[in-house]
Amino acid sequence: MQPVVVITGAASGIGKGIAKKMANGYSLVLVDVNSISLNAVAEELRNEGAVVSVVVGDVSLRETHKKSVAEASKIGTLTGWVNCAGISGVFPLHALPENQTDVMKVLEVNQIGTLWGCAEAIKSFIDSKVNGSIVNISSIHGRRAYLDHAVYEMTKAAIDALTRNAAVVYGPYGIRANSVAPGAVMSEAMEQSFVDAPDPKGRRQWLEMTTPLKRIGQTSEIAEVVEFLISPRSSYLTGQSICVDGGWAASLGVSELDQDLALKYGLNEKTGLPNKND
Ligand SMILES: NC(=O)c1ccc[n+]([C@@H]2O[C@H](COP(=O)([O-])OP(=O)(O)OC[C@H]3O[C@@H](n4cnc5c(N)ncnc54)[C@H](O)[C@@H]3O)[C@@H](O)[C@H]2O)c1
User: Fold this and answer.
1) Domains of the chain: which residue ranges?
2) pLDDT tens digits for 100-139?
3) Which atom of ligand 1 is nearest to the CA of 9?
4) Would the pTM count as exceeding 0.85?
5) Residue in 26, 146, 152, 265 annotated catalytic
6) Does CATH number 3.40.50.720 belong to domain 4-187+217-251?
7) Which residues neighbour 261 within 8 Å (Cβ) at sequence distance 6 or greater?
8) Neighbour tally for 191: CB within 10 Å
9) Are 37 and 13 in contact (CB under 8 A)?
10) In 3D, which of 177, 161, 162, 159 has the Cα closest to residue 234?
11) Name one GO molecular function term (predicted).
């Protein structure tokens, strides 16, 4: 039997990309609140020969994670867990909504959802005496600040702290935990953020311009790193938060270009993006 991996937030975007990557080599338990999209992803993967179970549920409830462990035990031995489900929250700190519900929701899904996921994964690894691996999806927002993102950033920094704790406390038993901190990645959520932006084209260009690799990442590029971290190929890697962000978090801001090199590579000398005629 193949090892089993639980992936939360698997109905869309980065979680779906991770599920597609891991369907070859692992049996999967896919978790999401969106039952229609989740079942569509599961069906697509089953048609390609993958073993896939689904749990429709809210990650902020511990019960959802307990159900995921129970589903995993029906198809094999749980050896990996990816906490990817997350929502954004854009609130100015000086004018947080009086109604606490929206703010608490971001904390509950991102932070508490990942906490329950880690807790149930570790409990299962210990019960089965398995050297399991956990990957939590945080964000470059966990280490860099951006306008009106205080609440979201707090949850993502908390995920990195939780990851370190799990790695240090359970390392002696061969359990590993790492987080992946994506930069701008083209998911359904990102597409929606362009639709909602007052200037979608300008917003997209700003993201591309400020990223040293001058483009938005693909979900498959996050999935590559997650798969590596779950696999034994990363057997000496634990307690880390790895930015997969085209160099964004390494930068001091919009980088000026070497004018001769920009010309040689056919790039706009101000933005670093390809010239339109090329
Ligand atoms: N896309 C990016 O640029 C980016 C950058 C950094 C970090 N991230 C993080 O990556 C993760 C995935 O983001 P994405 O862009 O793919 O978003 P997405 O909206 O495309 O996918 C998120 C998935 O999580 C599910 N989900 C939301 N709340 C849930 C809940 N309470 N219980 C169960 N499932 C729930 C959604 O239904 C959806 O299927 C998030 O944690 C996000 O914070 C994304």
Assistant:
1) 4-187+217-251
2) 999 999 999 999 999 999 999 999 999 999 999 999 999 9
3) 24
4) yes
5) 152
6) yes
7) 267
8) 12
9) no
10) 177
11) oxidoreductase activity, acting on the CH-OH group of donors, NAD or NADP as acceptor
